[in-house]
Design brief:
The complex is a heterodimer of chains A (about 270) and B (about 80). By secondary structure, chain A is an alpha/beta fold. Helices cover about 40% and strands about 15% of the residues of chain A. Chain A contains 13 helices and eight strands. In chain B, a hairpin with a 4-residue loop joins strand 1 (about 60-65) and strand 2 (about 70-80). Classes of the chains: A alpha/beta (about 270), B alpha+beta (about 80). Chain A: Interacts with MinC and FtsZ.
């Protein structure tokens, strides 16, 4: 049975697309057949982060409007087997996305895939609502920053009311919190919300914690999801996050200040 | 002396300010969850109507919507000043 997971946040720029790319890559690396769908019609970026922007021919809207088959639009990832990308349309208006169209595509994908990751656009408009509507689970990406936390709470409210599961009154959507751009040094000096603060305010189960890391920009520059950078802190943190999604219990890492060794002190060690 | 006090004064950490502000705003957001979208406007207009007759404060009005099995109850509490 396929798991449909929406990666959402409300606020923009907190790391939804980075997280959707990293998590779907991680799932595929564990042998799970995974598709990641970009719902940001008009402002697609998942293709860039996944490094397949030059191979986009058809997109989500083409499939919904019957101009292309699903298999024509799915892009096979170059690096990992079992990983596919369904890009968003760059030109059409947002109304091209219909609930029936999305439902039909998800039904077809469910037959073939273990995981369907929906990369939500920012905001709470149509694209964001459709990305979450059919989800079984939601990963709410949050930065340790007031506007992001507040928007995450708004999104949690929508997940609990404006989704198929909420309307049908069955099991509610399973909510996961993913904290990104966490900086333990600033937490220690009292200038950043702690992960306990965020967890307490939102009262959602914590799926993972991604430290602020230079590896993330490096990964997006190259179009290689950061999970592939297995020596980096962010890569490892995403890998842990994927393990927890698959039911493993792992302790948190990277939430405390790392003591610098003599060598890194001398040569000015940077966050990897 | 004042300078010394100023220097010794423990500056409130910005993260704890953030936490307090968030706790308040999130509690407020949650109290409005599941309400129909017209509730804030309804509340404002009701307040305007009441004000045509009595002067009441902004926070003297409390409005809530509770749904039971097959009906919803709109509850309105207005604190009127002593005449």
């Amino acid at each position: 049975m396929a798991r449909i997971i929406v990666v959402t946040s409300g606020k923009g720029g907190v790391g939804k697309t980075t997280s959707a790319a990293a998590i779907s890559t991680g799932l595929a690396l564990r042998g799970k057949k995974t598709v990641v769908i970009d719902f940001d019609v008009g402002l697609r970026n998942l293709d860039l982060i996944m490094g397949c922007e030059r191979r986009v021919v058809y997109d989500l809207v083409n499939v919904i409007q019957g101009e292309a088959g699903l298999n024509q639009a799915l892009i096979r990832d170059k690096r990992v087997e079992n990983l596919f990308i369904l890009p968003a349309s760059q030109t059409r208006d947002k109304d091209a996305l219909t609930q029936e169209g999305v439902a039909e595509i998800l039904e077809k994908l469910k037959e073939d895939f273990d995981f369907i990751i929906c990369d939500s656009p920012a905001g709470i408009e149509r694209g964001a609502q459709l990305a979450m509507y059919f989800a079984d689970e939601a990963i709410v990406v949050t930065n340790p920053e007031v506007s992001s936390v507040r928007d995450s709470d708004r999104i949690l409210g929508l997940l609990a009311s404006k989704t198929q599961r909420a309307e049908r009154g069955g099991d509610p959507i399973k909510e996961h919190l993913l904290i990104t751009r966490y900086n333990p040094e600033r937490v220690t000096t009292g200038d950043m919300l702690t992960l306990e603060d965020i967890r307490e305010i939102l009262s959602v189960h914590l799926l993972g914690l991604i430290p602020e890391s230079e590896a993330v920009l490096r990964a997006s520059n190259q179009g290689v999801p950061v999970t592939h950078d297995a020596s980096s802190d962010a890569g490892q943190a995403y890998s842990d996050t994927v393990s927890r999604l698959l039911g493993e219990e792992l302790p948190l890492r990277f939430h405390e200040v790392q003591r610098k060794g003599l060598l890194s002190r001398m040569f000015g060690g940077s966050r990897r | 002396m004042k300078l010394l006090e100023f220097l010794k004064r423990e500056r409130k950490k910005s993260a704890s300010v953030a936490k307090e502000r968030l706790q308040i705003i999130v509690a407020h957001q949650r109290s409005q969850r599941g309400q129909p979208d017209y509730m804030p406007l309804l509340e404002r207009e009701l307040l305007e109507v009441i004000r045509r007759y009595v002067h009441v404060d902004d926070n003297a009005i409390q409005i809530s919507l509770d749904s039971e099995d097959n009906c919803s109850v709109l509850e309105l509490n207005v604190t009127l000043p002593k005449s």
